[in-house]
Predict the 3D structure of the following.
Amino acid sequence: QVQLVESGGGLVQPGGSLRLSCAASGFTLDPYAIGWFRQAPGKEREGVSCISSSDGSTYYADSVKGRFIIFRDNSKNTVTLRMNSLKPEDTAVYYCATAPLCPLVVAGVISMIPMDYWGQGTQVTVSS
């Protein structure tokens, strides 16, 4: 069964860090670009970061650039999103998803494109 599973969410204070993991089962992540997206209550889903399959190029929304780091470990079939200096506005459900290529970044925003597979999401809450 093809499945993506996110983990690592939780409650953290402003300025803290979290490490989200996206693990695949039933298929390998090697051929895919992997994107992280988030959706806050009452808001549309937005792209956060993406890592390509070909050369490992990384892309970030301006809202997280310099604070979040995405990297992949194909030997473990996982992609990790390291989130530092978290802010209350980072509170959302975070999803990982696969696609042949990373979405374009236009004016600092990651475009929303159809993705192949989605995980179920993991909640991140930044609050004191």
Observations:
- The radius of gyration is 13 Å.
- The chain is about 0% helix and 50% strand.
- The mean pLDDT is 95.
